[in-house]
Amino acid sequence: MFHELRELYQEVILDHGRNPRNLRHPDNANCVALGNNPLCGDVLTVYLSVDENEVIQDAAFLGKGCAISMASASMMTEILKGKTAREAERIFGSFHRMCTEDGFDHAAEDGADPEALERLEVLSGVREFPMRVKCATLAWHTMNAAMSGADEVTTE
Amino acid sequence: MSEIADAMTFRPGGESKPPYDVERLRADFPILSREVYGRPLVFLDNAASAQKPRQVIEAMDEVLAEGYANVHRGAHYLSQTLTDRFEGVRATVARFINAASDQEIVFAKNATEAINLVAQSFGNRLAEGDEIIVSEMEHHANIVPWQLLRDRTGIVLRVVPITDDGALRLDALQELLGPRTRLVAITHASNVLGTVTPVAEIARLSHAQGVPLLVDGSQAVVHGKVDVRALDADFYVFTGHKLYGPTGVGVLYGKKDLLDTLPPFLGGGDMIRSVAFDKTTYAPPPHRFEAGTPPIVEVIGLEAAIDYVEGIGLERIAEHEHGLLQRATQKLSAIEGLKIYGTQPGKCSILSFTMAEAHAHDIGTIVDRAGVALRAGHHCAMPLMERLGVPATTRASFGLYNTPDEVDALADALEGVKEIFG
Questions:
Q1: Class of the domain covering B2-53+313-421
Q2: Domains of chain A (ranges plus CATH)?
Q3: What pLDDT, in 10s, does the model give residues B36-51?
Q4: Global ipTM
Q5: Looking at residues B300-328, what average pLDDT do you find?
Q6: Residues B294, B144, B203, CA angle at the centre, nearest 5°?
Q7: Which residues of B touch A40 (CB under 8 A)?
């Protein structure tokens, strides 16, 4: 049992959970959404600054939650910077499959930035913990909502 | 008197109290012998819903297999027999909470529906500016129905605060009780803090202002003997599934004089006296509030559950659980960085806590892999979480079948959290 837990709570995740990167409210954010996991009450806000070429210039978030949701949000903000809206969407799609599908194959995910997926691999331990998939994907759902102009999203 | 004398006569060797045989009780609960993740199940999520003894399972099975028909309408043997038995459960419930009459017992789907029933039927008489008082430590079930009523009628919701250690501020309640107060609706025991509220005193203060009192007894009926007449509650609600009974059945107790004045809740069959297109008249309570085919099998299951806990004795269950709570409080307090919420004397066996290193969900996931079932989250009490200044807590709640060894298993599993997050 400890093996799976160690897989879930890898050092990278614990580090991001303890010291989330980009935990701030940037003044110039033009895409903002609130994400809500009603099951546990976790709430976070994602702030994106997207330029006229649809490139994400800055990504940040505020919120409080479990180690998984904090680490996921933190890593997401790092990965998103410099990506286009289209790239962000592709990474989200692949990441979601990585968290939910057994036998997920990186090579089959053409289109999504392989380097980003490799970094996100540490979160794939949630596959063995179905109740925690929403924790890992909350930030990404929220990002998706912010990019598409919705101000709120719930994982229910 | 004669009952007590009889009981004394039959006690072997004059022993007034045989030891609480938890292993024998555990054998009544089939699920307790199963494993999760290859570990023995340690079920400490009883405040969410308790497991069922075979006595409850068998009673329900038996009705379905041998005695089932609809109640209140059949001109045949099975319907008549089951109707008598179904109606007889009201007397069992009345005895269980010491109601004056079985006609004061209304069956609902759960405690939530029972409160909604009152919010609807009693709420009908309220007008804009009327006030209802709740407390800061209510379950959403005793908040949201009043908010819906507020949206409908413009009533005002007033909130009694709690102290930092989880006691209801009676002084504040006294101040909030005013000329526009129409109802006080307060929990008997907090599902997060375990705090047992001084219901008799709350009733006295409310009644002094002519205000009726609704009590949410969902947690309280499980952990001790409830006497609605001694408490002088006007409404008392609880649910079956936390009382080792089935889901789908709850109870609304209401004083007869009060129930008599209330209009129906839902409309349909079973709650009427006669129906015509120009005028329909309604059945008297309790049937007035029970539209449609009731949860027949579940009501039979509830009776078996009540018989079961009464057979053990609510006081003895409470004593056993208190021992577990004390042991758990002691063991968990010794864990560095662990904080317990709700430290009122006389609290029931519910232990909510946070750990400095880990969020409630991370704790829940880690101990789950050790076979320990806890609840993590806001426990349907988001305003209370706000008051406590935490997004969530982890909660262990102990039932009649839990053991000191299981408390130790919890403490050991929490060491695993420290190991991972340490």
A1: alpha beta
A2: 2-154 (3.90.1010.10)
A3: 999 999 999 999 999 9
A4: 0.89
A5: 98
A6: 85
A7: 360-361, 376-378, 392
